[in-house]
Amino acid sequence: MINPQTFIFLKELVENNNRDWFQLNKERYDEARENVIDFTAAVISRLQKIDPTISPDLEAKKCVMRIYRDIRFSKNKLPYKNNFGVSFPTQGSKLGGVEYYLHIQPGQSFIAGGYWMPEAEHLKAIRQEIDYNADDLKKIIDDKEFIELFGEFRKQDQLKTTPKGYDADNENIDLIKLKSFIAWHPLKDKELTSASAADEIARVCSKLYPMNVFLKNALA
């Protein structure tokens, strides 16, 4: 589970997002990161029972993203993220692509799955798979339990125009026009600090798994 002190650290970081404060509290950060790594390992062990494409060699430490922001090309010059991001790849140990993603942030945590902003060739392949086998995807995303957990899959960022090669009257154009193919479920702080937190995340991911299978098949 996530230690309540991890949330306290992140809350205080928001109010003191500067290098001097961070260095003074480096030991607290290290403890929070270790807590997230340990929790990540617990989640991985459960995900491996759900999704056989989660590598048995996947290291929890490598799944936890850096808290340091790249501010070189950003107007936001705050040096640190206000969250811990955890990527669970389904392609060996390579982060990105079709994956599960855990976001740990006070009051704004969530678990997600799918493919966020696919590269051009992958986007083309996924759109083609939807065009050919849309019923397979719709059976997953229109399931009552899926909607209760993740909301309406189609209500994601879409292109304003119709993608090249497709007709505007295509019956699945609302899915074909999507820029990302993700579903996410909010997590309360008390859920993550519960002893059953890893089990709950695994339960939600079991409902994301069929969608990830569809997306991976599109890229095969």
From TrEMBL:
Q: Which Pfam families match?
A: DUF2461
UniProt-listed InterPro entries: CHP02453, UCP028451
Name this protein carries in UniProt: DUF2461 domain-containing protein
